[in-house]
Amino acid sequence: MDGICTLANDRVFDQLVALLNSIEANVSPDIPVCIYPFDDKLDRIREEIRDRPNVMIYDDQDSIRAWDEFMQRIAPERLDQKMRLYGAHRRFCAFDAPFDRFIYMDADTLAMSSMDHIFEQLNDHDWVVYDFQFLDPSKIYNLDSPNLYEVFPKERIDKEIFCSGFFAGKRGLFNPEQFIEQLLAGDREILYGGAGEQPVINYMVMKSGIKSCNLAHLLPFGQSTGCSITSKHFEEKDHVLYDRGLRLTYLHYIGVKPQRMEQVCNGINGTFPYRDVFLHYRFLHEPNKQPVLQEVPKPNLVQKVLQKLKLA
């Protein structure tokens, strides 16, 4: 069975609703969706999905506990206990269940198109990503580690790393015991220490030697699209974004804090790229509740200077 999965708790409720609605509108209203629990704060989510028969919350406690223990054991020693148990790694439960093949999407993403082309790549690959994280390996690996290039050649790091906010894989690719020995023997010190699970999953994919691809590399020149709100040139048509005329696969609101999205959903004026697209999907089934917000005036030169100095 194919499906889409994500990771959430009530703190990202508005983002999750927008994601679920975008999947319904642009992928399929019937595709099964599994939510991995970031923590036990799920009351609003449980209420929301009561009328979404295709959406479930993952509740295999043995699986969750195994991946919790894995992350606690292999996190770099320089991390404190709080960082070691940061719940983002629970997306690794996708390797256990419930789907044979899955696409994982962060809660702060929106589906912009059918995912058929992603699932099709899983016919020939075990792992599929579609992003440009390879342009900045410093958020994946500790580039100051003297052992980094002994573990992975630089040319692999420059090409193969990816963002953990969107990926496709298969059940059973990895298990919690698979990389323990190598990581504890020293490999964990090559991981960037400030990004939770993202360096770990990159390490697992690269170390395992599974057949993987990044559509940003695989597609012919001029046929790939961006995916992040840091790209300001996307064009909107009927609540879908296009990059130079090509429909996006997904949009990642990377860097926008959940509090900011919650505020605009509550009618408090604020801005972030493609805000109105997000609001459309958040209130897709409640258009009468969608707040009407004004554009925030751009700061003048003096305000920009004060903001940089953190005085305004």
Q: What are the key terms here?
A:
alpha/beta; 3-stranded antiparallel sheet; single chain; 15% strand; Spore Coat Polysaccharide Biosynthesis Protein SpsA, Chain A; 312 residues; 12 strands; 5-stranded mixed sheet
Task: Give a description of the structure.
There is one protein chain. The chain has 312 residues and is α/β, with parallel strands linked by helices. Helix content is 32%, strand content 15%. The protein is built from 13 helices and 12 strands. The protein has helices at 13-26, 43-48, 61-74, 81-84, 116-121, 148-151, 154-160, 180-184, 198-208, 215-218, 258-265, 275-282, 301-308; strands spanning 2-8, 33-37, 55-57, 101-105, 109-111, 127-129, 166-170, 212-214, 235-237, 240-243, 246-247, 250-252. The protein is globular, with a radius of gyration of 20 Å. The model is unreliable at 80-84 (pLDDT under 50).
The H-level CATH homologous superfamily, spelled out, is Spore Coat Polysaccharide Biosynthesis Protein SpsA, Chain A
Helix content: 25-40%
User: Which strand order does the major sheet show?
Assistant: 3-2-1-4-7
Low-confidence stretches: 80-84
- The CATH level-2 architecture is identified as Alpha-Beta Complex
Number of E-state strands: 12
Shape: globular
